[in-house]
Design brief:
Radius of gyration: 23 Å
Number of helices: 7
Number of strands: 18
Distance between the termini: 50 Å
Structural class: alpha+beta
Helix content: 10-25%
CATH architecture of the largest domain: 2-Layer Sandwich
Oligomer: single chain
CATH superfamily of the largest domain: Pseudouridine synthase
């Protein structure tokens, strides 16, 4: 989903309309009613609202108003136009506590908690990391392609915990951004995933792009011209029967990369609500086992993923700096419970 500001069109009735959403349909899209298509792409909406918008002429395909039963075709250009401007996301300082691991005049390293959105966006206009940053720090720089995201060099998903670096000067922002682009920064993640591995380490490669069925998630595509190249290296740290603790090292940094790559090799992240890890994927049918897993999922109701280490070259001193963080309590507790289960279960003796 994208919101485009300062773009308006004139309707047949000369009413000024503002473009709120714009979508370019993927080349491989199957024929699908536009109301169903848009339901997967616009948050906090309903099929009836989309049908009403179509009836009022507010949904256009290739510049023409369409009906709700229109079937989306590959390469269609869809826009939602409404008679009021797009809401501008005003960045408001908020006194949000930050877990600061390191700070100097140039950079800041923080440990992000679970359930914190990194920057404001649709449905999350307040309570984000950025809201907290601009309360604690003045005049943070921002990249042109990261509008509304001052200081940010990279992101973590809402449910992912761990280390992030924030730039405090323009020079630091440019320097760090180049490191991430050139892949000279170092990042390792720890994840609890479903299943046991036959090999103790491996590499997952596969282009990532948004799913054609659900735009809120990503998927691996075999076609070389679809999506962005992505590489994840993994190493098994602990095998606990039906789950494993793995270390993942990113060679690229794509949206949901670890979550999608692990699912692709049938090791979905434990607790991951978007990718199906929040239900029993491995194990027995015994009632006690089901209750045990549900207790673990209650302890960690998110993807069990933590950005554990972070390394980068300091933008001013040239020193390579490395940081490490402990696993958060929810992941620690889940691992401890699986350790006990594995040790006590006759199946693992």
């Amino acid at each position: 989903m994208s919101e485009v500001e300062d773009i308006s069109e004139e309707s047949d009735q000369s009413e000024e309309l503002f473009e709120h959403h714009n979508f370019k349909v993927d080349p491989g899209q199957e024929l699908l009613r536009i109301d169903k298509f848009l339901m997967d792409r616009i948050a906090n909406t309903s099929r009836s609202k989309i049908q009403i918008a179509a009836k009022e002429g507010n949904i256009r395909v290739n510049g023409q108003s369409i009906k709700a039963n229109y079937k989306v075709k590959p390469n269609d250009e869809i826009s939602i136009v409404l008679p009021y401007p797009v809401r501008e996301t005003e960045l408001l300082p908020e006194d949000i506590p930050l877990d600061i691991v390191y700070e100097d005049d140039v950079v800041l390293v923080i440990n992000k908690p679970a359930d914190m959105v990194v920057h404001p966006g649709h449905g999350n206009y307040t309570g984000t990391l950025v809201n907290g940053l601009i309360h604690h720090f003045d005049n943070l720089p921002q990249r042109d392609d990261y509008a509304g995201r001052p200081g940010l060099v990279h992101r973590l998903d809402k449910g992912t915990t761990g280390l992030m670096v924030v730039a405090k000067t323009e020079q630091a922002l440019a320097h760090l951004s180049k490191q991430f682009f050139d892949r000279t920064s170092e990042r390792t993640y720890h994840a609890i995933v479903w299943g046991d591995f036959e090999e103790s380490e491996g590499t997952v490669e596969g282009n990532l792009a948004r799913s054609l069925k659900n735009r809120k998630i990503m998927q691996v595509f075999d076609e070389p011209d679809v999506g962005k190249h992505a590489v994840t290296h993994y190493r098994v740290l602990r095998s606990l029967g039906y789950v494993s603790l793995v270390e993942c090292k990113l060679e690229t940094g794509r949206t949901h990369q670890i979550r999608v790559h692990m699912k692709h090799i049938n090791h979905t992240l434990f607790g991951d609500p978007e990718y199906g890890g929040d239900k029993i994927l491995k194990g027995t049918t015994f009632t006690k086992y089901k209750q045990f897993v549900n207790n673990c999922l209650t302890l960690c109701p998110r993807q069990a993923l933590h950005a554990k280490t972070l390394g980068f070259t300091h933008p001013e001193t040239g020193e390579f700096m490395q940081f490490d963080s402990e696993l958060p309590d929810d992941m620690q507790q889940v691992l401890e419970k699986w350790e006990v289960y594995a040790n006590n279960s006759a199946q693992f003796q």
